[in-house]
Amino acid sequence: MGVLRLVLADQLTREVAALRGADPEADIILMAEVHDEATYVRHHKQKIVFLFSAMRRFAEELRDEGFNVRYVKLDGGENSGSIFGEVRRAFAEEDVEELVATACGEVRLADDMEGWGRKLNRPVTIRDDDRFICSLPEFRAWADGRRTLRMEYFYREMRKKTGLLMDGDEPVGGQWNYDAENRKTLPKDYAAPANPEVVAGPIVDEVKDLVEERFGDHFGTLHQYAYGIDRAAALKRLDLFLDESLRLYGDYQDAMATGEDFLNHSLISVYLNAGLLTPLEICQAAEERYRSGKAPLNAVEGFIRQIIGWREYVRGVYWLYMPEYKERNALGAERPLPDFYWTGETDMHCIAECVRNTRDNAYAHHIQRLMITGNFALIYGVLPDEINEWYLIVYADAYEWVQLPNTHGMSQWADGGVLGSKPYASSGAYINRMSNYCKSCRYDVRKRTGEGACPFNYLYWDFLMRHEKKLRGNPRMAMMYRTLDKKEEKEKRALRESAAALVKRIEG
Fold first, then answer.
1. Residue 386's pLDDT is what?
2. Residue 197's pLDDT is what?
3. Average pLDDT, consecutive stretches of 10 residues, N- to C-terminus, the chain (508 residues)
4. Do 265 and 381 share a domain, yes or no?
5. Are strands 166-167 and 2-6 parallel, antiparallel or unpaired?
6. How many H helices and E strands in the chain?
């Protein structure tokens, strides 16, 4: 008898732990498209198309290696609708005696998997997911006893561990972080690198039809679908970024512009988070561009920090604090998510533009997420559960282990400061400085209150006043509150009234 080896949709690599030691003669590899995983939140259509297509392609590659793959399509006649249901059905129909799986990336499924051995009355082995640079025990050891868990210090440890951008024990260039150089605005005549069209192919075409039939009411469109579905396509996308975009990635990584959906961003997170690329190979390739003089240090360091810093760090935070972490609501936010997060129908041009990009591409870059849609939700006071669910639904690279800490902690400060030392709240001035959005908006970014004033302006000051008791003592908020103190009571009252009027208009 052989082993049943389970491969999940975000584990699409031959190096995943569950496949180590697999015997092509005796073992069965199980992969399944199931309704439960496509609908526990109503995932963006493009995310479902990408994952189902990539799963089908990976199954083909495994079969080409000689493995026996039991692949269950969503529209397969006996599909049980759940991963456990397909595991149980495989045990009933195949000559296997035990299950080997790789640890999943979400507490929701992990809790379910813990009980599978008892339910099946079969041996179940869940191997650690070692595709990350920092193991979970290593992160717990790093976090133990620390008063605050600041990513910057974790990032330095990962630099030392990997040797990336290091000269012996010291960082290349003498600094760990070059973020201060990475906040330039786009020149007026800037032309973003081209984003070549991805040829879909028969697998994607078939899955698109399936998704429109089964999940046609989910958020998003498919007409601009542009994701490759295998490792070869992922490597091609990575090389394109390194050759064409990395050089100016650092300079313009925080910039935004109307109609520019991607600018110099890499667009590789969807592949990385699904297993088609590995973090170390990406960072080593970027470092090589710096060492060979093809990309500047500020760009390469900023890019590497996103991967071995933030990505590894938020995974550690997620597993360290969940499930309690998700229940935190440090600012007591309770307002419902505005409808325009789904429709894009708002006179706030910045939000309309980011929602359009998200709808059409299942993508928005980190500043669009943090300082436009996230910033508005923060200063408006959206219930954390609702904005968390939105982010998990709308992006093709979103999995709870990476989405939740970024949204709940960094964007919404709902964790009370575990991730971020202060809330990432801003007025319209930041948006105006880092984008050209305000030029196409009916609101006046220079106006703080009343008809025609930018909503980010009065919501920002209203936010500071609403949460003064909690935030005034924060050293990083001191300058904001000194500015607030200089405002006359008449202006403060006008700011509150403008904010209340907006809430009334949005909530009806």
1. 98
2. 78
3. 96 98 97 97 98 98 98 94 97 96 97 96 97 97 93 96 97 94 90 84 97 98 95 97 96 95 96 98 98 97 97 98 97 98 98 98 97 98 98 98 97 95 96 97 96 97 97 95 96 97 94
4. no
5. unpaired
6. 25, 7
The phi and psi torsions of 195 (rounded to 5 degrees) equal: -115, 90
Residue partners of 180: CB distance under 8 A and separation at least 6: none
pLDDT value, residue 48: 98
User: Is 486 found in the same domain as 468?
Assistant: yes
Of 310, 286, 315, 307, the residue nearest 298 (C-alpha): 286
Which pLDDT belongs to residue 195?
84
Orientation of helix 478-485 relative to helix 455-466, angle to 10°: 100
Task: State the Cα–Cα distance between residues 53 and 208, nearest whole angstrom.
Answer: 9
Distance CA 29, CA 5 (A): 5
What is the span of the domain harbouring residue 292?
Answer: 136-200+230-321
Closest Cα partner for 107 from 407, 401, 414, 409? 401
> Are the beta carbons of 280 and 162 closer than 8 angstroms?
yes
Residues 303 and 391 in one domain: no
Do β-strands 124-127 and 96-102 pair in parallel, antiparallel, or remain unpaired? parallel
Predicted confidence at residue 199, as pLDDT, reads 76
**210 occurs within a structural domain:** no
Q: What pLDDT is attached to residue 103?
A: 98
* Distances 253 to 138, 262, 299, 425, 429 between C-alpha atoms, Å: 30, 10, 9, 19, 18
Check residue 416 and give left, alpha or beta (phi > 0: left; psi -120 to 50: alpha).
Answer: left
Measured between alpha carbons, how far is 408 from 319 in angstroms, rounded to an integer? 14
Cβ(481)–Cβ(464) under 8 Å?
Answer: yes
C-alpha–C-alpha distance, residues 292 and 167, integer Å: 15
Q: Which of 78, 98, 127 is the last residue of a domain?
A: 127
Distance of alpha carbon 349 from alpha carbon 359, whole angstroms: 15
Asked whether the beta carbons of 413 and 474 are under 8 A apart, the reply is no
